[in-house]
Design a protein that fits this description.
Layout (H helix, E strand, L loop, with lengths): L1 H16 L10 H6 E2 L12 E9 L4 E8 L10 E5 L7 H10 L2 E3 L6 E3 L9 E6 L13 H5 L2 H18 L8 E5 L6
Parallel strand pairs: 4-7, 4-8
Antiparallel strand pairs: 1-2, 2-3, 3-7, 5-6
Helix pairs in contact: 1-5
């Protein structure tokens, strides 16, 4: 019950912070995170971005994200945050590459092909590698890997979302959904 109350509090804080003004222009930070093309990627009609967001400078903790925008009307589509379960399963290696992402990896591992069931046809998908130590997310403090838990993971995710929304303010007023599987629901 306490965990649920804390999560509701964090979500209310996040909603309050996201109620400030937004801009539709691509920022310098966004441009730096733009993926022009992945190795072996087919031609696509949507934009992709990836990068790191620092969630704790003192410990050197940063979370990795990959945003795949919708190929049709991305400015009118909602934002969906995807979290894999586990805990400890990579959202990029599994959720994006094996389930709902725009690409599949061919059997030889030499190229990508389009996933005809990709969820980014209906929403802009934000894949988050969480907690630090999972996938491409990292910490420079080894003890963080031993002391990670639900509360710190939730706090880091909130810090990530607040900072990410500052980097991508055009998503502040969109419908926002959180989806995942297994332990991601915790």
């Amino acid at each position: 019950m306490m965990r649920m109350a804390a999560m509701l509090f964090y979500m209310m804080v996040f909603a309050t912070i996201c109620s400030s003004s937004s801009s539709m222009a691509i920022t310098r930070e966004q441009e730096e995170d733009r993926i022009r093309e992945l190795p072996g990627q087919p031609r696509v009609g949507f934009s992709q971005f990836s990068g790191y967001v620092s969630v704790n400078k003192k410990h050197g903790r940063a979370l990795f994200y990959w945003l795949t925008q919708s190929p049709s009307s991305p400015n009118n589509k909602p934002l969906l945050l995807w979290l894999n379960g586990g805990p400890g399963c990579s959202s990029v290696a599994y959720g994006a590459s094996e389930e709902i992402g725009p690409f599949r990896i061919n059997k030889t591992g030499s190229s990508l092909y389009l996933n005809r069931f990709a969820w980014n046809t209906e929403a802009n998908i934000l894949f988050l590698e969480s907690p630090a130590g999972v996938g491409f997310s990292y910490t420079n403090t080894s003890s963080d890997l031993l002391t990670s838990g639900d509360n710190r993971t939730a706090q880091d995710a909130l810090i990530f979302l607040v900072k990410w929304m500052s980097r991508f303010p055009q998503y502040k007023y969109r419908d926002f959904y959180i989806a995942g599987e297994s332990y991601a629901g915790t």
